[in-house]
Design brief:
Number of domains: 2
Helix content: 25-40%
Number of helices: 20
Radius of gyration: 25 Å
Shape: globular
Number of strands: 23
Structural class: alpha/beta
CATH superfamily of the largest domain: P-loop containing nucleotide triphosphate hydrolases
Largest sheet: 9 strands, mixed
């Protein structure tokens, strides 16, 4: 097993996840099987109970793991399917160690951070690194590990020690480190933060093999030489990762700087046996990637999507959604203009308190080519979302509702078309007499962490739904599988009344009891899904839900549907 560690210094949030994903992609293009692991120093067991406005979205895997958003980057870039164990947290490790201590597994020894916690981290990495993650079913050749946070963080100390020991355990030519630093531009490109961060990393026990410098502009030759001299590395070990038009150009940027050659020298990649078929597949993958990325520079036009949500102050709260729209835009050869609308600004209260914000928000919604209402929890801004849904439905504007967005579309229809004026949600409108949305019966209402319906579940297209635009994108398939994260559902006792009023539930679970998809006929695109299609969208394989939504907004749905079915 070969290991590539991606860690960082100076500041967090400089793009370690994109660099780790891009590195993995380049390794895949030469026929290697690649897996990824994300390490987070926080004590939470998982990201499930964290506020989206602080930590970004919660990403969900097939097995129901609630993960750090960087896991999504890996799956989107590498076409892999990871598990909950591919995200390691301090909480998970300590929980495991304490459970072993309670069982007596340490045979009366004093349990300490070193060697017991650090040993558990190494064992975890080596175990998970061997799990097959793609359709080949092969054990991975290379494991890319991203260490969250920055060097010097207290919570990272045990992981840094463990990774230093893993380097020794892995042996010669089996471990390489890419250190991501930030080179600020203050009149000139400043190298001192990088020098200091590399020094701190070495003091902590890790020795960077490559220094990836994030910068606003391409690094000057003098800057590269100075970093190499002051950090005691060769100039070819300094990789410049400057701002580019889209993150999909980063793999090409790294490839132009011969990152694969550097990794080959460090890890002896040529010694790894690779079937010819896998090498050919990797080459095709690279050609397709380059074609899509460069195609954005020659897009046929711009499509404006209004995302009407609750957590718009931090765009990472909806990162999988924005990436899924980008995938669809590249497929349709259009540029995406994603505009963020705080749903509370659409409500009458905002009109009274801040008319300018109210009118600006409504102007954005009314002029967008399409409207998307994503998931979320809590009652804030709900009526603003419902107003946006009403606009999309009545004005023939393409609409996509995801999870909460689908539930609110059901409530809006129940109120305005089915005549159930006080229709509401058990979560959002507890005083309402007619709950169109209710708790799922199996949910434990006393707990929040890990109590939702999570992971991949099948959805069956219902008989008589052959007219569906979404179903047409899936060809002859009568069933799809999608990832879920919800604890509420459409009230089963209200289904007949809603369907008789003209709201078709075209997708249901295997038992036909849980509503998965709504779609209105005689509308350019009005679709609501209980699942989260963004979790399965990939750069080279866009989600059909997002592809149809975007194509409808771009006016090319028929063309795209024909293209998708021809490709099958």
């Amino acid at each position: 097993m070969k290991f590539v560690l991606v860690s960082g210094g100076v500041i967090s949030g400089v793009g370690k996840g994109i660099i780790a994903s891009s590195t993995g992609l380049l390794l895949k293009t030469i026929g290697l099987t690649v897996t990824t692991i994300k390490i987070d120093g926080y004590i939470n067991i998982d990201a499930g109970t964290m506020a989206p406005t602080e930590h970004g979205e919660v990403y969900v895997t097939d097995d129901g793991g609630e993960m750090d958003l960087d896991i999504g980057n890996y799956e989107r870039y590498l076409l892999t399917t990871l598990t909950r164990d591919h995200n390691i947290t301090t909480g998970k490790v300590y929980q495991q160690v304490i459970e072993k201590e309670r069982r007596g597994d340490y045979l009366g020894k004093t349990v300490q951070v070193v060697p017991h916690v650090t040993g558990a981290i190494q064992d975890w990495i080596e175990r998970v690194a061997k799990i097959p993650v793609d359709e080949s079913g092969a054990e991975p050749d290379v494991c890319v590990i991203e260490l969250g946070g920055t060097v010097g963080d207290i919570e990272c100390a045990p992981f840094i020690h463990a990774l230093s020991q893993l380097h020794k355990r892995a042996g010669r030519n089996n471990f390489a480190q890419i250190f991501v630093s930030y080179v600020p531009l203050v009149g000139e490109q400043k190298t001192k933060p990088t020098q200091r961060a590399v020094s701190d990393t070495r003091s902590a026990g890790l020795n960077p093999d490559l220094i990836a410098c994030r910068c606003e502009q391409p690094l000057n030759e003098g800057t590269i030489q100075k970093i190499a001299n002051m950090c005691q590395v060769e100039q070819k070990q300094v990789v410049a990762v400057h701002n580019v038009s889209t993150t999909y150009h980063v793999p090409m940027l790294l490839n132009n700087q011969k990152l694969l050659d550097s990794l080959d020298e460090l890890l002896d990649l040529k010694s790894i046996s690779r079937p010819t078929a896998r090498i050919d597949l990797g080459s095709q993958m690279w050609d397709q990637w380059v074609g899509l990325a460069r195609g954005q520079d020659h897009a046929l036009g711009t499509v404006t999507i209004a995302l009407v949500g609750k957590y718009t102050t931090l765009h990472d709260s909806y990162i999988s959604i924005s990436k899924s729209l980008e995938h669809a835009a590249m497929y349709c050869r259009r540029k995406l203009e994603l505009v963020w609308v705080d749903a509370s600004h659409l409500e009458d209260e905002t009109l009274e308190n801040s008319p300018a914000e109210f009118h600006k928000a409504w102007h954005t919604v009314c002029t967008a080519n399409a409207i998307l209402v994503p998931g979320g929890f809590g009652s804030r801004a709900i009526e603003g979302m419902i107003k946006a849904i009403t606009w999309a439905r009545t004005k023939g504007v393409p609409f996509l509702g995801i999870c909460l967005g689908m539930q609110l579309a059901v409530i809006e229809y129940a109120r305005n078309i089915a005549g159930i004026e006080d229709a509401g949600s058990e979560e959002l409108h507890p005083q309402a007499k007619n709950h169109a949305i209710v708790y799922m019966p199996e949910v434990d209402k006393t707990k929040l962490g890990g109590t939702m319906r999570l992971g991949k579940h099948p959805c069956i297209f219902q008989p008589g739904s052959e007219w569906s635009k979404l179903r047409a994108l899936n060809g002859s398939a009568s069933q799809i599988e999608e990832r879920h994260r919800h604890r509420y559902e459409v009230n089963p006792s209200m289904i007949d009344q809603l369907e008789k009023a003209g709201l078709p539930f075209i997708g249901k679970d295997v038992k036909g009891e849980r509503m998965e998809i709504i779609e209105l006929p005689d509308h350019p695109w009005f679709v609501g899904v209980q699942f989260h299609p963004e979790y399965l969208s990939r750069v080279l394989s866009p989600s059909k839900v997002f592809l149809g939504f975007f194509a409808a907004a771009a006016g090319c749905l028929d063309e795209v549907t024909a293209s998708v079915n021809k490709a099958k």
